[in-house]
Amino acid sequence: MNAPMLRSLPAVLIALATCAAPAAAAPAAPAPPDPVVFVHGWNSDGTAWNTMAGRFRADGWPADRLHQWTYPTSQSNATTAAQLASVIDRVLASTGAAKVDVVTHSMGALSSRYYLKNLGGDKKVDAWVSLAGPNHGTQAARWCGGTSCVEMRPGSAFLRALNTGDETPGPTRYATWWSACDAIINPAGSVALTGAVNTQAPCLLHTAFTENAGVYREVRDHVTGAAPR
């Protein structure tokens, strides 16, 4: 082998090694978050979630994974639960997600719990949130009429059936927030559920839960699994 060939040999070997080395794999894109389905309370609608949904978007949730659903609040919570089941099935089909997270305010806790307990929802909901929910009834419901108000009254047939047995069934992760300053939920202890992570919020009025920044951060950490248990 002549001298010029010997001098070029290291460069040739380096080039061959470079070609043979496999390209570094690109880092995997993070999985998108679970879709969030918001369920409002009595005499309200999906716009009640504008502030909280905006905070989720600012924290990286795509707009198509945030669903501010509106339903007729005078109907039975069992009827609403069946409608919620259809909404969640549509969300899962459109996003390809395996499960959703459900965030509720006030009476929205009751229809969503009915869905989880009686309509197979525990298999489709990863994390569930109750903000100021009358889970064991509220005396304030004696001042309004209609089927859903009757169901919210302490000791109603609807609540007795809903709270019989396991209050937090299935693999779903349950969490509730309540406040001693919430005059609509009476008694305040109505909100807490056996088997859930139950948190006392600061002094908040009933409608302030969906807009409070501190509550939002705790809700976000619960649905992502970042909150300590």
Strand and helix layout:
Blueprint: H1 3-20, E1 36-39, H2 50-58, E2 66-69, H3 77-95, E3 100-105, H4 108-118, E4 125-131, H5 147-152, H6 157-163, E5 173-178, E6 197-200, H7 213-224
Parallel strand pairs: 1-2, 1-3, 3-4, 4-5, 5-6
Helix pairs in contact: 3-4
Beta-sheet strand percentage? Answer: 5-15%
Supply the CATH architecture: 3-Layer(aba) Sandwich
Q: Could you say which overall geometry the principal axes of the C-alpha atoms support?
A: globular
CATH topology: Rossmann fold
How many helices? The count is 7
* Poorly predicted ranges: 3-21
How do the SSEs run, as a string of H and E?
HEHEHEHEHHEEH
Walk me through what this model shows:
The protein is α/β, with parallel strands linked by helices. It has a single domain, classed as 3-Layer(aba) Sandwich (Rossmann fold), CATH 3.40.50.1820. It contains 7 helices and 6 strands; from the N terminus they run αβαβαβαβααββα. A 6-stranded parallel sheet has the order 2-1-3-4-5-6, sandwiched between helices. Strand 1, helix 2 and strand 2 (66-69) form a beta-alpha-beta unit. Helix 3 packs across helix 4. The protein is globular, with a radius of gyration of 25 Å. It starts with a helix and ends in a 5-residue tail after the last helix.
